[in-house]
Write a structure and sequence with these properties.
- By secondary structure, the chain is α+β, with helices and mostly antiparallel strands.
- The chain folds into 3 domains: about 140 residues, Schlafen, AAA domain (Methyltransferase, Cobalt-precorrin-4 Transmethylase, Domain 2, 2-Layer Sandwich), CATH 3.30.950; about 60 residues, no CATH class; about 160 residues, Heat Shock Protein 90 (2-Layer Sandwich), CATH 3.30.565.
- The chain has 13 helices and 18 strands.
- Helix 2 links the parallel strand 1 and strand 2.
- The longest helix is centred in the middle third of the chain and has 14 residues.
- It is elongated.
- The chain starts with a helix and ends with a strand.
């Protein structure tokens, strides 16, 4: 919040696109419109806006006595159903020699446009007005720009010391950047990581993608970043598991381990063609299971604390990843339409050769299933997860 000197400076400057002065204490609509406009931050100051109650048009304290009732009323505007989405704001009383001033500080919303009573309000110079269609479109585009994907965002509390830098410098960087470029590179590690979206220079910390790929303990930062494997006896979860395993650690290690492990449920079995000849058949084609597992790792929501579930029953394999279909993907256009919830993770997996970025994983797995004699994989879409079911070859 403001200091006394900062408050007096704002009062002296008068109304602007981030300051509203009012001597009234009862004009709730005026307050709501001002808070809405400051939350929308149409001038894009990226700084708080201020509603100063108890100040006249000349920038002087009006002699108001700020009561607890007035402060509660102003604070309750934050939870007012008329303001959507709810803005972040604080309310404070300042005692000046000429009278009290109630200050409402409003932080620019990360989810514009904010509406008051169904209408979008913005500041244009010292006044506020309803946004027109073009102005509202600008706010919608601003919202899209502010909503950076989870893996690009800074990882709070994580530092470069929490990373295994050799994983980045030796295992990843040479695969991502041409050798001649590396030879000419004089940047420090943080700058190198930032160029690949693994470090946020403004926040001075690694991104969530860096915590996933290179952290000593990724689960400290992203608790759901593991795969839960269970081999169930029978076709339900009623009986005790035959085997279970948890795959965790940095994503590079996890990918190597899961790729080696995936051959277990896809083992070959001898089948007699005649008394003198036999051939081998697989319950599940390795490529199909691998592709759907990698698809789950790449597209899952890492904001969820739930793991990727890899369950093997007698008659099927189920792979469930947290997070529903993302972006432009929908049940109607799946799997031909691809969108990336985790663009940095997807790029890293492609760089390391685990996936391509052409959205062919599901299509390729279905082709392999048919070639092996399995039914097509079935997909169940939920707002909170996607479930892939691979049926055993009959």
């Amino acid at each position: 919040m403001l200091t006394i000197d900062q408050l007096q400076h704002l009062m002296a400057l008068g109304e602007s696109d981030h300051v509203e002065l009012t001597a009234s204490t009862r004009n709730t609509d005026k307050f709501g419109e001002a808070i809405c406009a400051f939350a929308n931050d149409f001038p894009n100051h990226r700084q708080p806006g201020y509603l100063l109650v108890g100040v006249d048009d000349n920038g002087k304290a009006s002699g108001l006595t700020v009561t607890d009732e007035l402060l509660r009323g102003l604070a309750e505007l934050r939870s007012n159903v008329n303001l959507e989405p709810l803005p972040a704001m604080t309310v404070k009383k300042y005692a000046l020699p000429e009278g009290d001033v109630a200050v409402v500080e409003v932080v620019p919303s990360g989810l514009p446009p904010v509406r008051y009573k169904g209408r979008v309000w913005i500041r244009v110079g010292p006044s506020q007005r309803g946004a027109n269609q073009q102005e509202e479109r600008i706010l919608i585009e601003k919202r899209t720009a502010l909503q950076r994907p989870f893996d690009v965002r800074p990882c709070p509390g994580c530092t470069i010391d929490d990373l295994v830098l050799d994983l980045f410098l030796i295992s990843y960087l040479p695969a991502a950047v041409a050798r001649d470029v590396l030879n000419e590179n004089n940047r420090n590690v943080a700058e190198q990581m930032a160029s690949l979206r693994f470090y946020d220079l403004a926040a001075d910390c690694p991104s969530n993608a860096a915590a996933l790929l290179f952290a000593k303990d990724p689960l400290r930062w992203i608790p759901g970043a593991y795969i839960q494997f269970v081999r169930w006896a029978g076709t339900t979860m009623e009986k005790n598991p035959i085997n279970e395993k948890r795959f965790s650690g940095d994503l590079l290690t996890l990918l190597r381990e899961i790729e080696a492990f995936v051959s277990l449920p896809t083992q070959s079995q001898p089948v007699a063609d005649s008394a003198f000849r036999e051939r081998t058949e697989k319950d599940y084609p390795t490529v199909a299971v691998r592709e759907l597992l990698l698809n789950a790792i790449m597209h899952r929501s890492y904001e969820s604390n739930a793991p990727v579930r890899f369950y093997w029953y007698d008659d099927r394999i189920e792979i469930q990843n947290p997070g529903g279909l993302y972006g432009m993907a929908s049940p109607e256009n799946f799997p031909t339409q691809t969108d990336y919830r985790n663009p940095v993770v997807a790029e890293a997996m492609a760089t390391l050769g685990y996936v391509n970025k052409f959205g062919r994983g599901v299509i390729r797995s279905q082709a392999e299933l048919r070639r092996n004699g399995n039914p097509d994989a079935e997909f169940t879409f939920d707002p909170f997860h996607v479930l892939a079911t691979i049926w055993r070859r009959l």
